[in-house]
Every structure is written in structure tokens, then in C-alpha cells.
Amino acid sequence: MEVLRIENLKKSFGAIKVADAVNLSIAKGEAVGIIGPNGAGKTSLFNLISGNLAPDAGKIYLLGKDVTAMGAEMRCRAGIGRTYQIPQPFSGMTVFENCLVAATSGAGKSERASYDNCAEVLREMHLLAKANVLAGSLTLLERKALEVARALCSEPRVLLLDEIAGGLTTAEASELVETLRGVHTRGVAIVWIEHIVHALVAVVNRLVVIDFGAKVMEGDPAEVMASAEVKRIYMGMEAHDAA
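The structure corresponding to this sequence follows.
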């Protein structure tokens, strides 16, 4: 079953193309990674999908419904959840209150109807013991986990993860990867932008490469990472360096 489909998506800022006729399809429960150099248009693509940015052309479909004209709030209610590179919790609220806000605003449920799901998500993200702690006092790993938890509390059908492992130590990134594997098994489709490639390929089953706003390659993660073209545009290596 197709959850998300992007057709011929285009967006430019002057002469700079951040989305150059991008086509992408995400199936239910699939985990797809997106890689590319800085400035390739990865976060802009997320902003287009989530409704934070309007496309110049193209269509976005969620569960077969055209959501291109929908704003970010309505897309969240429809089933598109996302995180941000820099966690943005309500620092003066507790961890549990942060999740309640996500559930009531994002999923459109009452607080009472959201309690059990919020508690379950916090358990899944290893944050239940911190439920009554102010979000502003969390460590970076905990804030990253809360960012994912808040997105999950909006009950998404597809979850956009924007460099969620960035800034973490190797051990912390590994811990987060294990947690995200659990999220994937619950059937939520994941689209994940990440520069820490070893974390990414531990979860995703397909890689998409973007450069200058255009999709240049997609396929099996091992095959994509072994490609001379990917090494050239993503890692700055010439083809003969891979020999």
C-alpha cells in the first residue's frame, strides 16, 4: 500500500532549485533514507512534504489523497509527522505535557483520550521515567528522543526524520537506532535524512540520493553507497579513488 507519493515536485528560490522535478513513492511500513551534500535540498523537500513550504509545481499525495493545497497543520492531522534537526520542545513543560500537546494539536484528540498513547510512546522512546521532568532539563539524546515521541503522538502514517542522530556520540546514535527500529516495526513509514550514514543504513531498506534538488539515484543501501557517482557527489571522491 502506498502511503506517500510525490509527483514532479518543483521549488526554486531565484536561480537556486531546491526541488527539481522530484518523484518519490513511500509504501506502508517502509523505511527510506535520503542522503546528499549540504545544500542539496533535503530539508527543503521535507518542508514541501510537511506543508511548511509551498511548491512551484507538482503534487503530493497522502494515502491517495491530494494534499498539495493543505497547510502544515492539516497535513499533520492527515498523517504526516516530522522532527527537526534542532529539537524544539516546550522547555517549560514536562515531557508528558509536550506529548499531550502533540496529541491534541497534531492528532486532534482530547487530553483524556491521549493519555494512554502518550505513555506508551514515552515507554517506547525510553522516556517514561522522565515523564514529569521539564523538557528543558533533558540531555541532547533525550531531547532527540522527545522530538520523535512528539511526532509519534500525532499518530502519523509517515514520519519525517531530519538528521535525528546529528550531534550524538556513536554510542548515543546506536541507542537511538535501536529505538527507531522499534518505531519501524509498528508499521509507521519512515523517511529519514541523515549525514551519519552508518546509523541510517542500519534502519532503512532503500536509499535516495539528492543533489542540487534533483533525485539522482535510489535503490538498495549497500549498492547506492558503493556507487562511484554517490562517492563523487556525496563524499567528494573521484571514481578512481574507490578502486
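Confidence is low (pLDDT under 50) at residues 237-243.
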